[in-house]
């Protein structure tokens, strides 16, 4: 990888857009493509991936690296694959290098117009979308070419829509724009043109917000170099089927994987909040809000401060709740005196920490700092994983330091000055599954299908509302500040 020289100012600022350009044997068009991309009216960086070109493209890029960049030119980096691997492999090679707020894929031919970048990224930048597809088949100018080629595209889109339950009009479009952090969080496996179907299947399973905008299209004729190969179409069909069956949605960030899986456990999240609701006031601080699985139940409160240490999660919270005037998003480290002092003036009557304290090594300090955040009479709702005999690789993988009994969790709050108002075990139904997966099979990840099955069984948990089980997967303790 090489970085072309550029003004220092361009290197310091995060660009609005990252343009990824996979290149393979495009010596005839690459110069003009780069001119068009450079001329697009967006602050951007350009990442070029040469996928084993042998027609002079690589030599052109080597020369480009050594040539001085014009003043004000966009930052540009060039990467090289030693052998041809395909479009998907090229994108995967550089996606973690992207620094822009939005990332878009640009083919190295002249079929697509970079002047349309603003329309493609507008809905992402204004917070209304996570992914935008530029559709060649919506109303927009396009060159009239081949019926069978267009029919093939429409059939592949139809097949993809059947398995993803989306209503896209152009799955095979080159122009796909993503919030960069989201694209970087998705594992990309396809090497070739199966990339288009794979990423579509995954954004559908993640239930991301997808927009389509019409784009112009000036496709090449076969004489001009347009290719249609049955092998590529079959790659797409195979990817559609594989990623319909396979839940391969997350990189190594196991905490995000757990949060996304629990996002899909809507019945359980709703049941859990119902156990907390009698103790929740109108001015709420939620610690470790993650991606908003519980925050969404707090939108009717007078004031909500949703906090998380992760910038990725805070951005996710802003995406979902940024238009709610009474919901604020902040960072809060319970082990930081500075953070606690900064937010101590919120006059909170409720602090919620669901599955948070077990991640903090100095749990007693964290609880004492929660005490400082509350006004007199305020309540602290703490949910923690229960029973040391359930501790397993599942806990270690997501960063748990410990599991608690109800007595231990209550003592933690009492020692910090709280009066205990409520304590009980929750979710006895989940204990067998956790024990078998974690203690018997030593799994580090809870299988997604098991979580979905458990969510269907959540109506059985209503019986816990009539009796207090002697054990459970979690312990809920509510303390009140005198």
CATH architecture of the largest domain: Alpha-Beta Complex
Helical stretch tally:
18
Strand count, sense and closure of the main sheet?
8 strands, mixed
Radius of gyration: 26 Å
What count of domains describes the coordinates? Answer: 2
**Derived structural class:** alpha/beta
First-last Cα distance: 61 Å
Helix fraction, binned, reads 25-40%
CATH homologous superfamily title of the largest domain: Spore Coat Polysaccharide Biosynthesis Protein SpsA, Chain A
What's the CATH first level of the largest domain?
Alpha Beta
Range of strand content: 15-25%
What does this structure look like?
The protein is α/β, with parallel strands linked by helices and 482 residues long. It folds into two domains: 2-245, Spore Coat Polysaccharide Biosynthesis Protein SpsA, Chain A, CATH 3.90.550; 254-480, Rossmann fold, CATH 3.40.50.150. The protein has 18 helices and 15 strands. The protein has helices at 8-12, 30-39, 57-66, 87-94, 117-125, 147-164, 180-185, 194-205, 230-245, 254-263, 266-276, 311-321, 337-343, 363-373, 393-397, 406-415, 431-440, 448-456, and strands at residues 2-3, 17-23, 44-51, 76-81, 102-105, 131-135, 176-179, 210-214, 283-286, 303-307, 327-330, 348-354, 374-385, 419-426, 474-480. An eight-stranded mixed beta sheet has the order 1-4-3-2-5-7-6-8, with helices on both faces. The chain has a seven-stranded mixed beta sheet with strand order 11-10-9-12-13-15-14, sandwiched between helices. The longest helix has 18 residues, at 147-164. The relative contact order is 0.08.
């Amino acid at each position: 990888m090489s970085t072309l020289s550029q003004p220092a100012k361009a290197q310091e600022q995060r660009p609005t857009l990252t343009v990824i350009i996979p290149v393979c044997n495009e010596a005839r068009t690459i110069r003009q493509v780069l001119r068009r991309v450079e001329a697009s009216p967006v602050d951007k960086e350009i990442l070029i991936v040469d996928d084993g070109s042998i027609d002079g493209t690589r030599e052109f890029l080597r020369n480009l690296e050594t040539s001085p960049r014009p003043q004000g030119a966009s930052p540009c980096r060039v990467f090289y694959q030693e052998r041809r691997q395909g479009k998907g492999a090229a994108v995967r090679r550089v996606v973690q290098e992207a620094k822009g707020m939005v990332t878009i894929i640009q083919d190295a031919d002249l079929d697509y117009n970079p002047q349309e970048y603003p329309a493609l990224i507008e809905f992402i930048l204004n917070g209304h979308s996570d992914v935008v597809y530029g559709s060649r088949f919506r109303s927009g100018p396009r060159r009239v070419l081949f019926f069978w080629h267009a029919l093939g595209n429409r059939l592949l889109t139809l097949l993809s829509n059947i398995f993803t339950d989306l209503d896209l009009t152009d799955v095979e479009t080159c122009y796909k724009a993503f919030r960069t952090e989201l694209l970087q969080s998705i594992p990309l496996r396809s090497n070739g043109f199966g990339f288009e179907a794979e990423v579509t299947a995954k954004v559908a399973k993640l239930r991301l917000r997808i927009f389509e905008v019409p784009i112009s299209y000036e496709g090449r004729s076969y004489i001009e170099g347009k290719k249609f190969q049955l092998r590529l179409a079959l790659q797409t069909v195979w990817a559609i089927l594989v990623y319909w069956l396979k839940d391969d949605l997350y990189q190594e960030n196991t905490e995000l994987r757990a949060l996304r899986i629990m996002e899909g456990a809507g019945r359980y999240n709703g049941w859990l909040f119902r156990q907390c609701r009698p103790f929740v006031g109108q001015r709420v601080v939620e610690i470790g809000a993650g991606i908003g699985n519980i925050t969404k139940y707090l939108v009717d409160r007078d004031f909500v401060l949703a906090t998380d240490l992760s910038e990725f999660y805070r951005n996710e919270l802003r995406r979902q709740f940024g238009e709610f005037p009474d919901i604020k998003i902040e960072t809060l480290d319970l082990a930081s005196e500075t953070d606690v002092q900064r937010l101590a003036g919120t006059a909170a009557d409720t602090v919620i920490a669901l599955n948070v304290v077990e991640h903090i090594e100095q749990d007693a300090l964290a609880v004492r700092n929660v005490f400082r955040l509350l006004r007199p009479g305020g309540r602290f709702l703490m949910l923690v994983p229960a029973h040391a005999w359930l501790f397993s690789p599942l806990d270690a993988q997501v960063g748990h330091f410990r599991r608690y009994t109800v007595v231990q969790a209550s003592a933690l709050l009492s020692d910090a000055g709280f009066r205990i108002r409520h304590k009980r075990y929750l979710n006895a139904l989940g204990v067998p599954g956790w024990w078998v997966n974690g203690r018997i099979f030593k799994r580090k990840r809870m299988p997604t299908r098991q979580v979905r099955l458990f969510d269907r069984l959540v109506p059985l948990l209503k019986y816990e509302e009539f009796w207090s089980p002697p054990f459970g997967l979690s312990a809920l303790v509510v303390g009140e500040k005198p």
